[in-house]
Design goal:
Shape of chain A: globular
Structural class of chain A: alpha/beta
Strand order of the largest sheet of chain A: 2-1-3-6-7
CATH topology of the largest domain in chain A: Rossmann fold
Distance between the termini of chain A: 52 Å
Radius of gyration of chain A: 25 Å
Oligomer: homodimer
Number of strands of chain A: 14
Largest sheet of chain A: 5 strands, parallel
Number of helices of chain A: 18
CATH class of the largest domain in chain A: Alpha Beta
Largest interface: A-B, 82 and 76 residues
DNA sequence: TAGACGCGTTCGGTTTTCCGAACAGGTCAG
DNA sequence: CTGACCTGTTCGGAAAACCGAACGCGTCTA
């Protein structure tokens, strides 16, 4: 029934949790069992792979499932949630279902019924399309790809917004190929490079194909006027725009809102670490084939380092790093130090306690910074109590 | 609150029914009270006119409300249902909400709360009509509307100042409709788009109607001169101006003071969050009606996010966001992330437990790497015991 | 001037983490 | 075949981490 499904179980009760895990694994699912809301928030916010559904208790020692769900849906579309609770109320059930949770069951329940509803829930949320991966394999990436493909079927102008190096150009090409104009040309016009040919030339060149105007947020005022006119009197070609979210804030409001009517936001690579890993594998395969003596592969540690890196430069940075690393690698495997040579400086081996303390210190300082030095809010940010923060600061000498 | 609304009440209990009818009619609704499921089925299947919502008890002498709802939705999407029940269960509530019923309340309930939820339900299903409230439902909006209507009664030129997207254009139309010239045309001239026709043409076109000059603060020097002249020798048409407060500071002083003689300032949307919510409800209803598979509604989190947002782009931004969100929504409910997709770009804040786990995971993998996969030596490298390493690997899923 | 609020600090109790001991295999050299 | 050595795993107790409650203190506000 659940063969190969990946589930997350959030449940503090040891007995209940164990029995659920046992039964779910019997059905073939891979289950990650989390006992605390804080942990669950982290695991669901930066998952190690695709998660099919979340089974979530409501009363938890450090919070409640409802808040967990609300926090998750604040920033990203949450995975389907199946809530299970002992002391639930009708009002709560209504609230949660209306908030977009998938289902809600009272304890105690019959295991068969629980499983049936879980299966229904997963089936309802299963992505219908497959298609080629342009962006990545994460939920966010697949969702974005699906939206781009849908937009390709229409004739409307589309704005693809995202950080530099997030893959906007790739998506524009994918959109073009998914549209009825795929036989026509795809012309790329970079608005941030005024030296290039005039916009009108690009329009003529695109003809019955697609015109992708990159960095539309960097247009000068005349360019903006021209674009407004272009949107009012559509040219022969299909229009697709690319731009950075912050840059778009500075565009004149009427044009911005016109563009935003069909905006597709590409989540940055840092929001989907699994894609960073996936992208590295692909880039590695390409670069490795060109080596005279191909490497055997990538170490686990290198993968972990890639997932943990923030990727401020997006896919472009990743690409540069992988190519350089494959070029410079010495051993038979691609090591983390090949990808991040700048870290060699701090090379001496450290024990687990040391790296843990350092990570904690850095995060505590960041939290204090973010909360203007208020310890109470910093502690809330960090998910620990005020006293624990104080204790840690004592220990770390802050 | 419910003025002019048509409601159907399905309730067998005489006391309860009477009290509900009394209160609902007090609020201005027209209520049709049915005591049997069979009757209700007929009345709802071939309604005598538009019905805004159905308030429905579950336990009925000749059937139950759930079956009634199911039977109705078998053929077409039913009107919004608000279920009220004394002997309800969580399972039933979940089932009904999942099936698309609007809301579900347990008896006994506080009448105020019941009314509030009924109003929300109706608003979410009711597309905006013409010529109703122009700005919103907040006190600020109401006051501004009153001032505009009063100004409409005079013949003087009026300056409507406010942020872009605050609703200046709507107010201008409202002013026109409230004036004695309502039978004449309303001509809009956008001063920020010089490409358009000349001002003199617009004056001629407006004739005995109203001329609305938008973005009057963006006029070029010649335009300012022309406008000064226009104010000295009033044309046949009524003059209304729109402009942004900061932009007006830069206008030449004599013209500015002339314009300011009868200025109405529109408070920005950010100053009246209730209006943002209200406006979203209306826009949502309109956009949702055009969907092939209408959404069930807006989640509470989405409402909260809308109220909290600063709306630098005013109503225009809100409109663009809602339309796009309804277009792109995937689940049965409109989520906060549909309205603010760019928020996935926000680097997710990590709790201390998360960064600690992340750091540990990376170091453990590095140690295993360095020790060729021998756990014992890796544990020694990390400065922990073999069992602890095993336990950590379990917990981190390695 | 009283109250609300946030901070530093201590304390007792609960939970988790960590470790060593132990046991059942598995491998490999002798 | 046998013993040395390693691994995966469980168990119980010691150590720590963590939390909430509480107290005194300064600061800010009504």
């Amino acid at each position: 029934m659940l063969t190969g499904r990946r589930l997350v179980l959030v449940e503090d009760d040891a007995l209940m949790g164990a029995s659920l895990v046992q039964r779910l694994e019997l059905e073939g699912a891979r289950v990650q069992w989390l006992r605390q809301a804080g942990r669950a928030l982290g695991a669901l916010r930066s998952p190690q792979g695709h998660i099919d559904a979340v089974v979530c208790d409501i009363a938890l020692p450090d919070g409640d499932g409802e808040a967990l769900f609300a926090e998750l849906s604040r920033t990203r579309p949450p995975r389907p949630f199946l809530f299970i609770t002992g002391r639930g109320s009708i009002a709560q059930a209504v609230r949660l279902i209306q908030a977009g949770a998938g289902d809600y069951i009272e304890k105690p329940f019959a295991m068969d019924q629980f499983l049936a509803r879980l299966v229904t829930l997963i089936a309802a949320a299963d992505p219908p399309g497959e298609g080629e991966a342009w962006l990545g394999v994460s939920d966010l990436a697949r969702r974005t790809e699906r939206r781009v493909a849908e937009a390709g079927a229409t004739e409307r102008p589309v704005l693809i917004s995202g950080e530099p190096g997030a893959g906007k150009g790739h998506l524009a090409r994918g959109l073009h190929n998914a549209s009825s104009r795929r036989l026509g040309p795809l012309v790329v016009h970079d608005a941030s490079r005024p030296s290039g040919s005039a916009l009108s030339d690009a329009i003529a060149e695109a003809a019955d194909g697609t015109l992708y105007i990159a960095a539309v947020d960097r247009l000068d005022p005349e360019g903006e006027m021209a674009l407004l006119e272009l949107l009012d009197t559509p040219p022969a070609c299909r229009l697709v725009f690319g731009g950075a979210p912050e840059g778009l804030e500075a565009v004149r409001p009427d044009l911005r809102d016109r563009l935003r009517r069909s905006e597709i936001t590409v989540p940055p690579l840092s929001a989907r670490p699994e894609d960073a890993d996936w992208l590295m594998q692909r880039l590695f395969a390409g670069a490795n084939a060109r080596r005279s003596a191909p490497l055997s592969g990538i170490t686990e540690a290198a993968s972990a380092a890639v997932r943990a890196h923030g990727w401020p430069g997006g896919g472009r940075e990743l690409r540069a790093r992988v190519i350089r690393a494959v070029d410079a690698a010495e051993g038979p495997w691609l090591q983390a130090t090949d990808l991040f040579p700048e870290r060699v400086a701090e090379a001496p081996w450290r024990t687990l306690a040391e790296v843990r303390d350092e990570a904690e210190r850095a995060q505590i300082l960041a939290a204090l910074d973010r909360s203007d030095g208020h310890p109470a809010t910093a502690a809330r940010l960090l998910g620990i109590s005020r006293t624990t923060l104080w204790e840690k600061m004592q220990r770390l000498g802050l």
